[in-house]
Amino acid sequence: MKNITPEIYNQMSQKASPKSNVKVNVPVAFLVGGLICSIGAILMHVFTAQGMAETTASTWTSIILVGLSSVLTGLGKYEKIAKHAGAGTLVPITGFSNAITSSAIEAKSEGFILGVGAKIFTLAGPVILYGCFASVIYGVIYYFISG
Q: How far is the C-alpha of 34 from the C-alpha of 89, rounded, in Å?
């Protein structure tokens, strides 16, 4: 077997990777992400128009978006949308819900405690960890900048 250097590995990886059409993928991701956020904005408007406080309306909006994403993931529809929309489905809160639900579905066969309970944050764990870490760093920077 031939020794594979990092350069050779990168060349092999680039040959095997499908080429993406950035001119199409970026606008589609932008539009789908914008559509998800627009649905959230419409829900917020409907709830506040019904007399809900803004904090209560935003809570219910988040709950509905997370629930809808989980249901679509369970039905196998979210992955089909994400296949075409790319990062447009990852950035909003629905992408986080999809990651958690996918992990739970995948681990279900191992049982609820050692499967779902132990592995539900497999995909979302790094997001939570680095998100919290980044917020601490930004908070410290903000503290020193604002005095």
A: 10
Percent of the chain with pLDDT over 70: 99
Which DSSP helix (H) or strand (E) runs through 6? helix 6-16
Which range in 9-18, 64-73, 90-99, 107-116 is most confidently predicted, on average pLDDT?
64-73
Distance CA 74, CA 97 (A): 11
Tokens for 66, please give them.
Answer: 């997370």
Are 125 and 93 contacting, i.e. CB atoms less than 8 angstroms apart? Answer: no
pLDDT at 95 over 90: no
Number of H helices, E strands in the chain: 7, 0
